[in-house]
Protein backbone atom coordinates (compact mmCIF):
# COMPACT_ATOMS: atom_id res chain seq x y z
CA UNK A 1 0.00 0.00 0.00
CA UNK A 2 2.67 2.46 1.11
CA UNK A 3 4.66 1.79 -1.99
CA UNK A 4 1.62 2.18 -4.26
CA UNK A 5 0.85 5.52 -2.62
CA UNK A 6 4.43 6.61 -3.06
CA UNK A 7 4.27 5.79 -6.75
CA UNK A 8 1.07 7.77 -7.19
CA UNK A 9 2.67 10.78 -5.49
CA UNK A 10 5.74 10.46 -7.64
CA UNK A 11 3.60 10.27 -10.77
CA UNK A 12 1.69 13.37 -9.72
CA UNK A 13 4.93 15.28 -9.18
CA UNK A 14 6.36 14.18 -12.52
CA UNK A 15 3.14 14.94 -14.36
CA UNK A 16 2.74 18.34 -12.79
CA UNK A 17 6.33 19.28 -13.52
CA UNK A 18 5.82 18.26 -17.14
CA UNK A 19 2.66 20.36 -17.23
CA UNK A 20 4.51 23.26 -15.61
CA UNK A 21 7.22 23.07 -18.24
CA UNK A 22 4.71 23.07 -21.02
CA UNK A 23 2.90 25.96 -19.39
CA UNK A 24 5.99 28.03 -18.76
CA UNK A 25 8.25 27.48 -21.69
CA UNK A 26 6.97 27.61 -25.24
CA UNK A 27 10.35 27.29 -26.94
CA UNK A 28 10.23 23.59 -27.82
CA UNK A 29 13.97 23.19 -27.26
CA UNK A 30 15.46 22.52 -23.84
CA UNK A 31 17.38 25.72 -23.26
CA UNK A 32 20.03 26.11 -20.57
CA UNK A 33 22.51 28.89 -19.84
CA UNK A 34 24.97 29.17 -22.76
CA UNK A 35 28.76 28.82 -22.30
CA UNK A 36 31.35 30.90 -24.11
CA UNK A 37 33.02 29.01 -26.96
CA UNK A 38 36.82 28.62 -27.01
CA UNK A 39 38.70 31.24 -28.97
CA UNK A 40 40.35 30.57 -32.30
CA UNK A 41 42.27 33.83 -32.03
CA UNK A 42 42.52 36.82 -29.68
CA UNK A 43 42.66 40.38 -30.99
CA UNK A 44 43.80 43.49 -29.15
CA UNK A 45 42.47 46.84 -30.30
CA UNK A 46 44.54 48.70 -32.86
CA UNK A 47 43.94 52.23 -34.03
CA UNK A 48 41.70 53.25 -36.94
CA UNK A 49 39.24 51.12 -38.88
CA UNK A 50 39.60 47.48 -37.75
CA UNK A 51 37.03 45.98 -40.15
CA UNK A 52 39.51 44.01 -42.24
CA UNK A 53 41.36 42.59 -39.25
CA UNK A 54 38.21 41.43 -37.49
CA UNK A 55 36.53 40.12 -40.65
CA UNK A 56 39.65 38.15 -41.67
CA UNK A 57 39.83 36.60 -38.22
CA UNK A 58 36.14 35.63 -38.39
CA UNK A 59 36.51 34.16 -41.88
CA UNK A 60 39.44 31.96 -40.88
CA UNK A 61 38.08 30.87 -37.49
CA UNK A 62 37.25 27.18 -37.08
CA UNK A 63 33.59 26.28 -36.64
CA UNK A 64 32.61 26.01 -32.99
CA UNK A 65 35.14 28.67 -31.95
CA UNK A 66 35.12 32.42 -31.44
CA UNK A 67 37.15 35.45 -32.41
CA UNK A 68 37.93 37.08 -29.08
CA UNK A 69 38.25 40.86 -28.73
CA UNK A 70 40.20 41.02 -25.50
CA UNK A 71 40.65 44.69 -24.60
CA UNK A 72 40.43 48.24 -25.86
CA UNK A 73 38.16 50.00 -28.33
CA UNK A 74 37.72 48.48 -31.77
CA UNK A 75 36.22 50.70 -34.45
CA UNK A 76 34.71 48.86 -37.36
CA UNK A 77 32.37 49.00 -40.32
CA UNK A 78 29.89 46.19 -41.05
CA UNK A 79 30.91 42.63 -40.19
CA UNK A 80 29.52 39.22 -41.15
CA UNK A 81 29.75 36.32 -38.75
CA UNK A 82 30.15 33.05 -40.71
CA UNK A 83 28.24 29.85 -39.99
CA UNK A 84 29.40 28.07 -36.84
CA UNK A 85 31.67 30.95 -35.80
CA UNK A 86 31.15 33.37 -32.91
CA UNK A 87 32.36 36.72 -31.73
CA UNK A 88 33.46 37.01 -28.11
CA UNK A 89 33.81 40.53 -26.71
CA UNK A 90 35.55 40.47 -23.32
CA UNK A 91 34.58 42.76 -20.46
CA UNK A 92 37.40 45.23 -21.17
CA UNK A 93 36.56 45.53 -24.86
CA UNK A 94 34.22 47.79 -26.84
CA UNK A 95 33.31 47.24 -30.47
CA UNK A 96 32.12 50.52 -32.01
CA UNK A 97 30.22 50.87 -35.27
CA UNK A 98 31.88 53.59 -37.36
CA UNK A 99 29.21 56.21 -38.12
CA UNK A 100 30.09 56.39 -41.82
CA UNK A 101 27.00 55.77 -44.01
CA UNK A 102 29.05 54.81 -47.09
CA UNK A 103 30.37 51.74 -45.24
CA UNK A 104 26.81 50.39 -44.80
CA UNK A 105 25.35 51.44 -48.14
CA UNK A 106 23.60 48.65 -50.05
CA UNK A 107 24.32 50.20 -53.44
CA UNK A 108 21.72 52.91 -53.95
CA UNK A 109 23.77 55.54 -52.09
CA UNK A 110 20.82 56.20 -49.79
CA UNK A 111 22.31 55.07 -46.48
CA UNK A 112 22.41 58.12 -44.21
CA UNK A 113 19.50 59.82 -46.04
CA UNK A 114 15.70 59.78 -45.83
CA UNK A 115 13.44 58.35 -48.53
CA UNK A 116 10.16 56.46 -49.05
CA UNK A 117 11.69 53.03 -48.26
CA UNK A 118 14.25 53.11 -45.48
CA UNK A 119 16.08 49.98 -46.65
CA UNK A 120 19.35 51.51 -47.89
CA UNK A 121 21.78 50.25 -45.23
CA UNK A 122 23.08 46.86 -44.22
CA UNK A 123 23.34 46.00 -40.52
CA UNK A 124 26.49 46.49 -38.46
CA UNK A 125 26.66 42.74 -37.75
CA UNK A 126 25.01 40.25 -40.10
CA UNK A 127 24.48 36.55 -39.48
CA UNK A 128 22.94 34.95 -42.57
CA UNK A 129 22.29 31.29 -43.39
CA UNK A 130 24.35 30.27 -40.37
CA UNK A 131 24.08 27.39 -37.93
CA UNK A 132 25.44 27.64 -34.40
CA UNK A 133 26.92 31.14 -34.58
CA UNK A 134 26.74 33.66 -31.75
CA UNK A 135 27.89 36.78 -29.98
CA UNK A 136 29.24 36.30 -26.47
CA UNK A 137 31.09 38.10 -23.69
CA UNK A 138 30.68 40.78 -21.05
CA UNK A 139 31.97 43.53 -23.34
CA UNK A 140 30.01 46.14 -25.28
CA UNK A 141 28.90 46.67 -28.85
CA UNK A 142 28.15 50.37 -29.40
CA UNK A 143 26.13 51.39 -32.48
CA UNK A 144 27.02 55.08 -32.01
CA UNK A 145 23.54 56.23 -33.03
CA UNK A 146 24.19 59.54 -31.28
CA UNK A 147 27.41 60.31 -33.21
CA UNK A 148 27.41 62.70 -36.15
CA UNK A 149 27.55 60.71 -39.38
CA UNK A 150 30.78 61.00 -41.34
CA UNK A 151 30.34 63.61 -44.06
CA UNK A 152 26.99 64.80 -42.67
CA UNK A 153 25.90 67.30 -40.09
CA UNK A 154 23.50 65.14 -38.07
CA UNK A 155 23.47 61.90 -36.09
CA UNK A 156 21.73 58.67 -37.09
CA UNK A 157 19.10 59.38 -34.41
CA UNK A 158 18.56 62.94 -35.64
CA UNK A 159 17.95 61.56 -39.13
CA UNK A 160 15.34 59.18 -37.65
CA UNK A 161 13.62 62.04 -35.84
CA UNK A 162 13.60 64.09 -39.01
CA UNK A 163 12.00 61.18 -40.95
CA UNK A 164 9.16 61.27 -38.46
CA UNK A 165 8.65 64.99 -39.08
CA UNK A 166 8.71 64.48 -42.87
CA UNK A 167 6.58 61.33 -42.74
CA UNK A 168 9.16 59.24 -44.59
CA UNK A 169 11.87 56.74 -43.58
CA UNK A 170 15.43 56.98 -42.34
CA UNK A 171 18.11 54.81 -43.96
CA UNK A 172 20.18 53.76 -40.96
CA UNK A 173 21.80 50.43 -39.98
CA UNK A 174 20.35 47.95 -37.54
CA UNK A 175 22.90 46.70 -35.01
CA UNK A 176 22.53 42.91 -35.44
CA UNK A 177 20.53 41.20 -38.21
CA UNK A 178 20.11 37.41 -38.13
CA UNK A 179 18.43 35.81 -41.18
CA UNK A 180 17.64 32.26 -42.29
CA UNK A 181 19.73 30.79 -39.50
CA UNK A 182 19.57 27.97 -36.98
CA UNK A 183 20.64 27.86 -33.33
CA UNK A 184 22.04 31.33 -32.83
CA UNK A 185 23.11 32.56 -29.38
CA UNK A 186 23.57 36.00 -27.86
CA UNK A 187 25.01 35.74 -24.36
CA UNK A 188 25.89 38.40 -21.76
CA UNK A 189 26.86 41.04 -24.29
CA UNK A 190 25.91 44.70 -23.73
CA UNK A 191 24.41 46.42 -26.77
CA UNK A 192 23.93 50.15 -26.85
CA UNK A 193 23.12 53.15 -29.00
CA UNK A 194 21.95 51.27 -32.07
CA UNK A 195 20.96 53.65 -34.90
CA UNK A 196 17.85 51.40 -35.38
CA UNK A 197 16.68 47.98 -34.04
CA UNK A 198 19.33 46.32 -31.85
CA UNK A 199 18.62 42.67 -32.67
CA UNK A 200 16.29 41.57 -35.48
CA UNK A 201 15.85 38.08 -36.84
CA UNK A 202 14.13 36.80 -39.95
CA UNK A 203 13.16 33.13 -40.47
CA UNK A 204 15.51 31.91 -37.78
CA UNK A 205 14.78 28.69 -35.91
CA UNK A 206 16.52 28.34 -32.57
CA UNK A 207 17.54 31.65 -31.03
CA UNK A 208 18.79 32.02 -27.47
CA UNK A 209 19.23 35.54 -26.12
CA UNK A 210 20.44 35.09 -22.56
CA UNK A 211 21.65 37.60 -19.99
CA UNK A 212 22.24 40.45 -22.41
CA UNK A 213 21.89 44.15 -21.59
CA UNK A 214 20.49 46.74 -23.95
CA UNK A 215 20.96 50.31 -22.84
CA UNK A 216 19.93 53.09 -25.22
CA UNK A 217 18.19 56.44 -24.55
CA UNK A 218 14.38 56.53 -24.54
CA UNK A 219 14.52 59.38 -27.08
CA UNK A 220 16.27 57.31 -29.78
CA UNK A 221 13.55 56.54 -32.31
CA UNK A 222 12.92 52.97 -33.65
CA UNK A 223 15.61 51.43 -31.48
CA UNK A 224 13.70 48.21 -30.67
CA UNK A 225 15.54 45.84 -28.32
CA UNK A 226 15.00 42.28 -29.59
CA UNK A 227 12.66 41.61 -32.53
CA UNK A 228 12.10 37.96 -33.45
CA UNK A 229 10.40 38.08 -36.87
CA UNK A 230 9.00 35.01 -38.56
CA UNK A 231 11.14 32.95 -36.19
CA UNK A 232 10.54 29.83 -34.10
CA UNK A 233 12.02 28.23 -30.97
CA UNK A 234 13.13 31.46 -29.41
CA UNK A 235 14.17 32.07 -25.79
CA UNK A 236 14.87 35.56 -24.45
CA UNK A 237 15.87 35.14 -20.79
CA UNK A 238 17.50 37.08 -17.94
CA UNK A 239 17.97 40.23 -20.02
CA UNK A 240 17.81 43.87 -19.02
CA UNK A 241 16.46 46.10 -21.78
CA UNK A 242 16.09 49.91 -21.79
CA UNK A 243 15.61 51.60 -25.13
CA UNK A 244 13.61 54.06 -27.27
CA UNK A 245 11.03 51.72 -28.84
CA UNK A 246 9.62 48.23 -28.19
CA UNK A 247 11.83 46.41 -25.68
CA UNK A 248 10.82 43.15 -27.36
CA UNK A 249 8.58 42.98 -30.45
CA UNK A 250 7.47 39.69 -31.97
CA UNK A 251 6.61 40.16 -35.65
CA UNK A 252 5.62 37.98 -38.61
CA UNK A 253 6.03 39.78 -41.92
CA UNK A 254 6.75 36.82 -44.21
CA UNK A 255 6.37 33.69 -42.05
CA UNK A 256 4.79 32.86 -38.67
CA UNK A 257 6.46 33.41 -35.31
CA UNK A 258 5.85 30.69 -32.75
CA UNK A 259 7.25 28.76 -29.78
CA UNK A 260 8.66 31.83 -28.09
CA UNK A 261 9.63 32.09 -24.40
CA UNK A 262 10.38 35.44 -22.82
CA UNK A 263 11.53 34.54 -19.32
CA UNK A 264 12.69 36.53 -16.28
CA UNK A 265 13.56 39.81 -17.93
CA UNK A 266 13.69 43.41 -16.72
CA UNK A 267 12.59 46.30 -18.94
CA UNK A 268 13.40 49.94 -18.13
CA UNK A 269 12.43 52.64 -20.64
CA UNK A 270 10.91 51.56 -23.92
CA UNK A 271 7.56 50.79 -25.50
CA UNK A 272 7.12 47.47 -23.75
CA UNK A 273 6.56 43.79 -24.52
CA UNK A 274 4.92 43.85 -27.94
CA UNK A 275 3.48 41.49 -30.49
CA UNK A 276 2.89 43.21 -33.85
CA UNK A 277 2.04 45.35 -35.56
CA UNK A 278 3.65 43.56 -38.57
CA UNK A 279 2.02 40.26 -37.69
CA UNK A 280 0.31 39.19 -40.95
CA UNK A 281 1.62 35.58 -40.73
CA UNK A 282 0.53 35.25 -37.12
CA UNK A 283 2.08 34.62 -33.72
CA UNK A 284 1.24 31.68 -31.50
CA UNK A 285 2.59 29.73 -28.54
CA UNK A 286 4.21 32.66 -26.81
CA UNK A 287 4.89 32.74 -23.09
CA UNK A 288 6.05 35.80 -21.20
CA UNK A 289 6.90 34.89 -17.64
CA UNK A 290 8.70 36.72 -14.85
CA UNK A 291 8.78 40.19 -16.39
CA UNK A 292 9.30 43.47 -14.54
CA UNK A 293 8.60 46.69 -16.40
CA UNK A 294 9.70 49.89 -14.76
CA UNK A 295 8.82 53.01 -16.71
CA UNK A 296 7.97 51.63 -20.14
CA UNK A 297 5.22 53.55 -21.97
CA UNK A 298 3.26 50.38 -22.73
CA UNK A 299 3.35 47.12 -20.84
CA UNK A 300 1.87 44.03 -22.50
CA UNK A 301 0.84 45.06 -25.98
CA UNK A 302 -0.59 43.32 -29.03
CA UNK A 303 -1.16 45.54 -32.02
CA UNK A 304 -2.42 45.08 -35.55
CA UNK A 305 -5.02 46.53 -37.90
CA UNK A 306 -6.96 45.53 -41.01
CA UNK A 307 -3.92 46.38 -43.14
CA UNK A 308 -1.63 43.90 -41.25
CA UNK A 309 -4.18 41.24 -40.16
CA UNK A 310 -2.75 38.13 -38.42
CA UNK A 311 -3.91 35.55 -35.91
CA UNK A 312 -2.37 36.01 -32.47
CA UNK A 313 -3.23 33.07 -30.22
CA UNK A 314 -1.87 30.91 -27.41
CA UNK A 315 -0.21 33.79 -25.61
CA UNK A 316 0.29 33.63 -21.85
CA UNK A 317 1.58 36.39 -19.59
CA UNK A 318 2.51 35.07 -16.15
CA UNK A 319 4.13 36.72 -13.12
CA UNK A 320 4.40 40.22 -14.49
CA UNK A 321 4.87 43.33 -12.38
CA UNK A 322 4.80 46.94 -13.62
CA UNK A 323 5.37 50.40 -12.21
CA UNK A 324 5.15 53.75 -13.98
CA UNK A 325 3.58 52.27 -17.12
CA UNK A 326 0.93 54.46 -18.83
CA UNK A 327 -0.68 51.65 -20.82
CA UNK A 328 -0.09 48.47 -18.82
CA UNK A 329 -2.23 46.31 -21.13
CA UNK A 330 -2.92 47.52 -24.65
CA UNK A 331 -4.57 45.09 -27.07
CA UNK A 332 -5.39 47.03 -30.20
CA UNK A 333 -6.81 45.78 -33.51
CA UNK A 334 -6.94 49.32 -34.86
CA UNK A 335 -3.30 50.27 -34.37
CA UNK A 336 -1.97 53.29 -36.23
CA UNK A 337 -4.06 56.20 -37.32
CA UNK A 338 -6.15 55.41 -40.36
CA UNK A 339 -4.16 52.30 -41.30
CA UNK A 340 -6.78 50.08 -42.87
CA UNK A 341 -6.95 47.29 -45.42
CA UNK A 342 -8.85 44.09 -46.11
CA UNK A 343 -7.30 41.67 -43.61
CA UNK A 344 -8.81 40.53 -40.33
CA UNK A 345 -6.62 40.53 -37.22
CA UNK A 346 -7.67 37.96 -34.60
CA UNK A 347 -6.48 37.98 -30.98
CA UNK A 348 -7.68 35.02 -28.95
CA UNK A 349 -6.60 32.62 -26.21
CA UNK A 350 -4.60 35.37 -24.49
CA UNK A 351 -4.14 34.70 -20.76
CA UNK A 352 -2.97 37.01 -17.99
CA UNK A 353 -1.98 35.23 -14.76
CA UNK A 354 -0.55 36.90 -11.67
CA UNK A 355 -0.16 40.33 -13.19
CA UNK A 356 0.39 43.24 -10.81
CA UNK A 357 0.31 46.86 -11.92
CA UNK A 358 1.37 49.09 -9.04
CA UNK A 359 0.61 52.50 -10.59
CA UNK A 360 -2.48 53.89 -12.33
CA UNK A 361 -2.76 53.41 -16.05
CA UNK A 362 -5.12 52.92 -18.96
CA UNK A 363 -6.04 49.35 -19.91
CA UNK A 364 -7.26 49.08 -23.51
CA UNK A 365 -8.96 46.18 -25.27
CA UNK A 366 -9.97 47.40 -28.70
CA UNK A 367 -11.40 44.61 -30.88
CA UNK A 368 -12.58 44.91 -34.45
CA UNK A 369 -16.28 44.14 -34.17
CA UNK A 370 -18.74 42.09 -32.17
CA UNK A 371 -18.13 39.18 -34.54
CA UNK A 372 -14.35 39.59 -34.18
CA UNK A 373 -13.69 40.51 -30.57
CA UNK A 374 -10.49 40.27 -28.56
CA UNK A 375 -10.73 37.16 -26.34
CA UNK A 376 -8.73 37.14 -23.12
CA UNK A 377 -8.74 35.43 -19.73
CA UNK A 378 -7.57 37.04 -16.50
CA UNK A 379 -6.49 35.12 -13.40
CA UNK A 380 -5.15 36.94 -10.44
CA UNK A 381 -4.80 40.34 -12.09
CA UNK A 382 -4.36 43.20 -9.63
CA UNK A 383 -4.32 46.82 -10.72
CA UNK A 384 -4.20 50.21 -9.06
CA UNK A 385 -7.38 51.92 -7.93
CA UNK A 386 -8.23 54.82 -10.22
CA UNK A 387 -6.98 53.11 -13.40
CA UNK A 388 -8.93 53.48 -16.64
CA UNK A 389 -10.43 50.41 -18.29
CA UNK A 390 -11.46 50.83 -21.93
CA UNK A 391 -12.96 47.77 -23.62
CA UNK A 392 -14.83 47.60 -26.87
CA UNK A 393 -15.50 44.41 -28.85
CA UNK A 394 -13.71 42.43 -26.14
CA UNK A 395 -14.60 39.22 -24.30
CA UNK A 396 -12.77 39.33 -21.00
CA UNK A 397 -13.20 36.21 -18.87
CA UNK A 398 -11.95 35.63 -15.33
CA UNK A 399 -11.15 38.07 -12.58
CA UNK A 400 -9.26 41.27 -12.00
CA UNK A 401 -9.45 43.75 -9.20
CA UNK A 402 -8.39 47.30 -8.35
CA UNK A 403 -6.79 46.13 -5.15
CA UNK A 404 -3.06 46.18 -5.67
CA UNK A 405 -0.82 47.43 -2.88
CA UNK A 406 2.91 48.14 -2.69
CA UNK A 407 5.15 50.41 -4.71
CA UNK A 408 8.06 48.20 -5.69
CA UNK A 409 8.09 45.10 -7.89
CA UNK A 410 9.79 42.27 -6.11
CA UNK A 411 11.38 39.49 -8.05
CA UNK A 412 8.91 39.29 -10.87
CA UNK A 413 11.74 39.45 -13.34
CA UNK A 414 15.47 38.81 -13.21
C1 LIG B 1 11.81 23.49 -32.51
O1 LIG B 1 12.46 22.66 -31.59
C2 LIG B 1 11.97 21.32 -31.58
C3 LIG B 1 12.66 20.60 -30.40
O2 LIG B 1 14.05 20.67 -30.53
C4 LIG B 1 12.28 20.68 -32.93
O3 LIG B 1 11.75 19.36 -32.95
C5 LIG B 1 11.59 21.51 -34.02
O4 LIG B 1 11.94 20.99 -35.29
C6 LIG B 1 12.04 22.97 -33.93
N1 LIG B 1 11.28 23.77 -34.87
C7 LIG B 1 11.85 24.43 -35.86
C8 LIG B 1 10.93 25.16 -36.78
O5 LIG B 1 13.06 24.45 -36.03
C1 LIG C 1 17.06 39.82 -43.71
O1 LIG C 1 15.66 39.68 -43.74
C2 LIG C 1 14.97 40.91 -43.86
C3 LIG C 1 13.50 40.64 -43.69
O2 LIG C 1 13.09 39.56 -44.46
C4 LIG C 1 15.31 41.54 -45.20
O3 LIG C 1 14.65 42.79 -45.32
C5 LIG C 1 16.82 41.75 -45.28
O4 LIG C 1 17.15 42.22 -46.54
C6 LIG C 1 17.55 40.45 -45.00
N1 LIG C 1 18.96 40.74 -44.88
C7 LIG C 1 19.90 39.91 -45.35
C8 LIG C 1 21.29 40.33 -45.14
O5 LIG C 1 19.60 38.87 -45.92
C1 LIG D 1 -7.88 60.03 -40.22
O1 LIG D 1 -8.82 60.21 -41.25
C2 LIG D 1 -9.79 61.19 -40.95
C3 LIG D 1 -10.85 61.19 -42.06
O2 LIG D 1 -10.23 61.15 -43.33
C4 LIG D 1 -9.10 62.57 -40.79
O3 LIG D 1 -10.03 63.54 -40.44
C5 LIG D 1 -8.06 62.44 -39.67
O4 LIG D 1 -7.32 63.64 -39.58
C6 LIG D 1 -7.09 61.30 -39.95
N1 LIG D 1 -6.23 61.11 -38.80
C7 LIG D 1 -4.93 61.00 -38.89
C8 LIG D 1 -4.19 60.89 -37.63
O5 LIG D 1 -4.34 60.93 -39.97
Automatic annotation (TrEMBL):
Domain of life of the organism encoding this protein: Eukaryota
Keyword Signal: yes
BP terms from Gene Ontology: carbohydrate metabolic process
A GO MF label: polygalacturonase activity
Active site: 271
Signal peptide: 1-25
Alphabetical UniProt keywords: Glycosidase, Hydrolase, Signal
Xref: Pfam families: Glyco_hydro_28
Xref: PANTHER family: PECTIN LYASE-RELATED (PTHR31339), PLASMIN AND FIBRONECTIN-BINDING PROTEIN A (PTHR31339:SF9)
Similarity section: Belongs to the glycosyl hydrolase 28 family.
Name under which the protein is recorded: Glycoside hydrolase family 28
Organism: Aretaon asperrimus
